[in-house]
Amino acid sequence: MQRRDFIKITAATGAVAALEGCGNPDHQLIRFIPEEELLPGIAAWKPSICTLCPAGCGTLVRVMQGEAEVVRNGQLGLLKMGLAKKIEGNPAHPISQGKLCPRGHAALQVTYHPDRIRTPLQRTGQRGAGQWKEITWDEAIKQLVGQLSPLLAAKQPGQLAVITSPLKGQRRTVVSNFAAAFKASPIEFEFFDNAAVKAANQQSFGVAALPTLDLAHSNYVISFGADFLGTWNAPVAQSIGYGEMRKGRPGQRGKFVQFESRVSQTGANADEWIACPPGAEGAVALSLAHVILSEKLRTAASAGAAGAVIEGWATGLPDFSPEKIEKQFGVHGELIRRLAREAAANSPAVALIGEPSTAQSNGFLSAVAVNALNALLGSVGKPGGISFAPSSAVKLVPVKAPAADWVKSSAGLKVVLLFGANPRFLTPAEWGIGDALVNTPFIASFSSFIDETSSLADLILPDHSPLESWLDDSPESGSTRTVVSVAPPVMAPLHNTRSMPDLLLDVAQRLGGEVAKALRWKTYDEALKASFGELYKKQGSKSAKDADEFWSKAQERGGWWSAEEKAVPAAAKGGGTLKYAEPKFDGSADFPFHFLPFPSQMFYDGSLAHLPWMQEAPDPLSSVMWGTWVEINNRTAEKLGVKMGDTVEVASQHGSLRAPALVTPAIAPDVIAMPIGQGHTNYTRYATGRGANPISILAPMKVEGTESLAWAATRVKVSRVGEGKIVMFGASMEELPSTTKHR
Ligand code: SF4
Asked: Of ligand 1's atoms, which has the minimum distance to the CA of residue 107?
């Protein structure tokens, strides 16, 4: 009998006394024998990886002995164990460099969340009614295998859909290989997918990836809407680089210019913030290039293929003179001329574009235009410019691009597997994801929480939390080194959960046949060790005497990363030319305002709205907490008769929502903005029924040239509904009546 299997049943008076102290005298708990050696009062710092956004920051987790209520062998009891207490950035990790964003710190609350799913659940009521019964893992796995076996035998494409959040590391290999045995491909749902930037980088430089920014060595930065200090790309690495650019070089402070239609957290740091109408970013970038070319500050040929791909580049972009841009978009021509000259004179200068500018219908073309400007400024693959991280050293199975219209082919679906994705919250109602799921005969979710999508499941097989899991990642940007992060669990699981990849390996073996052959590992850490064996052969033989030492050193350090590498040289795709296109918007003159949803600093895409620390943290610009808001320019508000905190209705052709108004001069008069993240209808006690979801009223338009939602291309009308309330830090907090029930 293993030590962990041996339960010391003490039904102890001590335990009961302890629980009485916690106000829970009704149930007696057994006390389990500790599963690990721990030193009371001594903290251990264990490496891990932040999974709360795609940036892939390396972390260190402070683990100390504590006592927790846990489930072992189906039995609830008390266990002395190592408990994660605090998360910091891993100083040795090339992406985080010892720092984290606020979201990374709050990752601790995922593990200890009171509404985590603690054991497998089977639906008992109507689909979506929230009626479940607890079942054993044996029962749960039998049900899943029972549903999948006929599909494996039939080998008919289209019967299984595997819907995932962005897959990291070898999880992608495990999930993809599993799906492939059923002739299916994972469908990734990522709201902020940066598809336009990646497609543009493929077009301009031959690399379909996000760029790595070397801001620390830049002298001049022009950003088109990229919130690179808050939520875009690798914000921690970029914030560190930005700090170096501004203060790290005595006597030399780089200049930063931001074009956007609403002041973002990043824009608030700019030396010059310039109002730019939504969708005009690419035209302004080409106008800057026009000035540089026409004043012979650079030659057209110096931009190479990234410039040549733009129609009219060789002749100096005559259609993009500053005068024409001023007439068309209202951005002052003289300002464009001055900025173009400054950028050309202050090398290294770099131009960036990110969401929401690339979430317009012409976002891909705008990103191609900014790439050409970058190439013209000589900032590609050079210090102080952009480059691309070396391609991952670990073999990963490529995942099929997200298909916006997968619903159209869902008629023959028999089973859906959900891995952490919440497409019902993250897609416009008109995509019909909810209807497609409701009509699917069987849905199994591997989620840790009930959300809008997992609430439709027939079976829930709850995953461990990230701190309880083996993690790995190969970040796509943020460093010019090859980075392959890996981390063992920092603590034992609290509940009766199972690691998703381990469970899939188990299910594959029970199903047998091709799926068992495709997933030959017994456990996920075995798969990781095998991938590090490959990495050792390719890259790591200089840093360890053998593959075993390489593997154990990587676990101690939080991964393996190469020495500083030379930036990957740019290689354009070539081919024909692209003609710049004006943005298109959904909504006639009856809808006079551009609707600009934006990523929330605290909730990212809404997946973090269940964390009370994130609800409690004031938004850095508005200081709003525990709610949402609609940003309206003060002059517009005056015309509409709207005052701060009034409830307004925002209506598009696709729906309407209500939220309190935040009246501010930091937004263009014809733009209405709203953070994404709140408005959950079913996502734990902290997020449910709080605020409104701007995605729910978006038009189902796509960014041309990609499969992505053009989520900043909807037009709306706004009207005052009545008085309302906006909760802001230090401004409107009231003490709750003592009778209020705690959520
Ligand atoms: S940027 Fe923040 S949320 Fe994203 S991985 Fe890093 S710490 Fe986590």
From this structure: 8
CATH 3.40.228.10 intervals, the chain: 206-387
**Residues at CB less than 6 angstroms from ligand 1:** 50, 52-53, 55-57, 100-101, 103-104, 235-236
Distance 604 CA to ligand 1 centre (A): 10
Measured at the CA of 607, the angle between CA 490 and CA 688, to 5 degrees, comes to 115
Main-chain phi, psi angles of 737, to 5 degrees: -60, 145
Entry pTM: 0.92
Q: Is 173 left (phi over 0), alpha (psi -120 to 50) or beta?
A: alpha
User: Which residue type sits at 56?
Assistant: G
Residues 227 and 600: their CA atoms lie apart, in Å, by: 11
Could you give the CA distance from residue 534 to residue 372 in angstroms, rounded to a whole number? 37
* Segments in the chain below pLDDT 70: 1-27, 391-408, 540-541, 566-575, 731-743
Q: What is the pLDDT of residue 11?
A: 34
Calculate how far, in angstroms, residue 171's C-alpha sits from the geometric centre of ligand 1: 19
Minimum-distance ligand 1 atom for the alpha carbon of 105: 7
- Quick one: pLDDT at residue 19? 39
Q: 206-387: which CATH number, 3.90.1150.10, 3.40.50.720, 3.40.228.10, 3.40.1110.10? A: 3.40.228.10
pLDDT in tens, 584-608: 999 988 999 999 999 999 999 999 9
Pick the atom of ligand 1 nearest to 102's CA: 2
Q: Point out the ligand 1 atom lying closest to the alpha carbon of residue 95.
A: 6
How would CATH label the architecture of 593-722?
Beta Barrel (2.40)
Which amino acid residue places its CA nearest to atom 4 of ligand 1? Answer: 53
Residue ID of nearest Cα to ligand 1 atom 8: 104
- CATH 2.40.40.20 residue spans of the chain: 593-722
Q: How far is the CA of 417 from the centre of ligand 1 (A)?
A: 26
- Per-residue model confidence (pLDDT) at position 603: 96
* Structure confidence at residue 29 (pLDDT): 80
Q: 55 C-alpha vs ligand 1 centroid, how far in Å? A: 6
pLDDT of residue 740: 61
CB 656 within 8 A of CB 581: no
Pick the closest to residue 277 from 228, 355, 225 (CA basis): 225
**pLDDT score at 731:** 67
Tell how far the Cα of 638 is from the centroid of ligand 1, in angstroms: 39
